[in-house]
User: Which sequence fits this backbone?
């Protein structure tokens, strides 16, 4: 079994690479992750805080 680790993407990024890293980890298009994150952000604004926390926690 492959040992997968979650990292911020250094090649597929817009701000910090969080969505690109999540997309690479789950083997899905990072654009879908970004779209889901934007929708999540508009539903109460907690997506922005979650993105900031994820960019601090997830290693580069």
Assistant:
């Amino acid at each position: 079994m492959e040992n997968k680790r979650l990292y911020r993407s250094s090649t597929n990024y817009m701000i910090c690479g969080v969505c690109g890293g999540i997309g690479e980890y789950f083997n899905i298009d990072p654009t879908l992750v970004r779209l889901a994150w934007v929708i999540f952000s508009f539903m109460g604004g907690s997506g922005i805080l979650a993105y900031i926390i994820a960019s601090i926690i997830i290693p580069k």
Notes: DSSP finds three helices and no strands in the chain. The mean pLDDT is 89. The first helix runs from residue 18 to 26.
